[in-house]
Input
Amino acid sequence: MFSLKNAPSTTSVLSTYTTFTATAMLVRGVITEVQAIASQLIPERLQTMVLSKLESLFSNPSSSQMTLLIDESDGMNELYEASQIYLQTKISTSMKRLRVSKSQRDNTISVAISKGETVTDTFEGIQLKWEMTIVESNENHLGKSEKRVTELTFQNECMEKVLNSCLPYVMGRSKTIKEENMVLKLYSIGNHYGDMEGPWGSTNLDHPATFDKIAMDPSLKKDLIEDLDRFVRRRDLYKRVGKVWKRGYLLYGPPGTGKSSLVAAMANYLKFNVYDLELASVYCNSDLRGLLTSTRNRSILVIEDIDCSIELQNRQAETNFEGYNQGNNSKN
Output
């Protein structure tokens, strides 16, 4: 039983409370002092980073993550294609399953990530996880259809940076890789033996000409290369000032002097496809307009023997003839 005789005296209780209060105040003062010293010695950004790491250790990681789904969309999603090209540079020997393919347009075998494989990546300090998955749609008369989906997972607070910086970087990087690995094409009208793109038929442009191999005046060659580089570099400038991004060159000389080789060297240097247009096969302005609008960007349009394709008028001779007639009329 509880006995009042065994209860501590009021003096003991007050003494213990006073000691506890003093100890708490002392500990609180020490903590405040440590915080003050830490704020002076440790940068604020480092403090925020440490606190963020501590919060992530004691929080549920899955609840603070965001996942973006980049689906195939029947080949219409440019971001999906860009992500596949970009992830090719992240393939490592630790992966167990990879997809390989080769098309007529490619010089080398293409290697891609297979279903279930993941890639850990970083972008400006953001931890990213890429994963390839396959989603099965409803069954139809052709059976079950599958759609490939690339999943991109990251921390919730990084969503704005991923959308505005990371994904545009992936698009730009994949574009560069695609241009470096592309097989150049020679397009012409009426070529039905290769790939068809509208009215244009194409074959691989395997011309070996380069600026290092062609015989050309060194200073003129240097000026031409600098002009090509300047043209490519100023693409955004053309857009800002509202001008069409194009450049024209007139090559003239007897047959066999290297005009076609120079065009091939320019194509190999710029990684541009070549469209060979014969005006004799064009019958009206609407046909010409249709041919020009069906060409791809970053290409070279070659119009050969332009002086023989159409009947050019000698304006100087016409002017002299009109002046002669006017002189005769005045005498009469």
In short: The CA atoms of residues 184 and 273 lie 5 Å apart. The chain has a mean pLDDT of 78.
